């Protein structure tokens, strides 16, 4: 099938067109191109579902570095399809509503399109060379998104982000090189690695696992390698925060799933238990750290660490339920956290304030943003008929089957997270004593952005089979 090629071609063409037009037209072009890419993705998903044409789908394969058997080849499975759908919807919403201030329109639109191209190519990469290439390309794009268009402390946050992510990149490269030379056939092909990884000596497997695991921990991120995240998420522009939290953090989650599928050593019971404990500690740490924050964007940033800790727990269970749940949870979390950052950015723009201690009764003067933020809180708590509910059910079912009653403990981290959010919501949204005064007005673009993400959250909550049926037919 040609869908992946078509999607990447549309976005690449759009990126070129954006550079040729002025500020005013570039945003319209960005919306059209991202919308066409999203439409192609949804047609792809619908065709897979309706025709039952389930197989690994290759877009093309071209020799790139023959001496190393490296090919430019894209191939998708159930996990990557889910994340490609997620990335295309979030990028579309970010281009429509993320630039609330309407500043640097051309530059920000171009970077979003380039990041969308890189993210989709990353999730569709069939070999570790492309996996690494698009990982690095995405990091560089997000560095410029933060460094150029973030808020007051953006440069410091961007440098910290770059140091951590380049450390992850170096660990990733080292792991890939060792893996390549540890295999008898010397290949970067992910499918061949999965089939032949058992031939790698145990000592080499342990080293490769450690390097990959640390790289993915930094990107997700997982405590204690999360230090870059609160600053990067809170200092980025609204569209930047949506991309950071909604898409980039899923690179590590996707890589973690591949790691557990590739290396037999990852199935060792003591190792999976250790990974479970790391996810558990990360979730509880972030939930309680969130309670000490006053900046609404930092609060949402810490909530992202909680959710990614839960995702890690699903992966560590080594069950189909857990891995399917981790994938679905990443899909859901991408939508929800992007929505909450869009609402938080809008609230900051409306009231010129993002300190929850000073924001009071915002429902009176910013009804759509206040209720959207509240909807995000309800969704994060896992209410039925939302995508988050499906992800949580699958993850905790998988965790319980592997760890028994221990697998249920992470639920209390979610309880702590939601309790903190409900308290913030009660004072910030509904406390009408001396309500905050509206200073600016958001446009229809932000409300459309809200609608796109809310529709995705509800659609995949009501129709989870659109994604889960892929697993039933493709397997993991």
Question: How would you characterize this protein structure?
Answer:
With 476 residues, the chain is mainly alpha-helical. It is 73% helix and 3% strand. The chain has a two-stranded antiparallel sheet. A hairpin with a 4-residue loop joins β1 (57-65) and β2 (70-76). α3 packs parallel to α13 and α11 runs antiparallel to α12 (296-316).
Key terms:
single chain; 476 residues; mainly alpha; two-stranded antiparallel sheet; 2 strands; 3% strand; globular
Run of helices and strands: HHEEHHHHHHHHHHHHHHHH
Largest sheet: 2 strands, antiparallel
The number of strands is 2
Number of helical segments?
Answer: 18
Global geometry: globular
> How would you write the strand order of the largest sheet?
1-2
Radius of gyration: 21 Å
**Average residue pLDDT:** 89
Look at the helices and sheets and give the structural class.
Answer: mainly alpha
Distance between the termini: 20 Å
Tell me the helix content.
over 70%
Quick overview:
The protein contains 18 helices and two strands. By secondary structure, it is mainly alpha-helical.
Give the secondary structure arrangement, pairings included.
Layout: H1 3-20, H2 23-51, E1 57-65, E2 70-76, H3 78-97, H4 105-123, H5 128-149, H6 154-182, H7 190-196, H8 202-219, H9 228-235, H10 238-262, H11 269-290, H12 296-316, H13 320-351, H14 367-380, H15 387-403, H16 411-428, H17 444-462, H18 465-474
Antiparallel strand pairs: 1-2
Helix pairs in contact: 1-2, 1-4, 2-3, 2-4, 3-4, 3-10, 3-13, 3-17, 3-18, 4-5, 4-10, 5-6, 5-10, 6-8, 6-9, 8-10, 9-10, 9-12, 10-12, 10-13, 11-12, 11-16, 12-13, 12-15, 13-14, 13-15, 13-17, 14-16, 14-17, 15-17
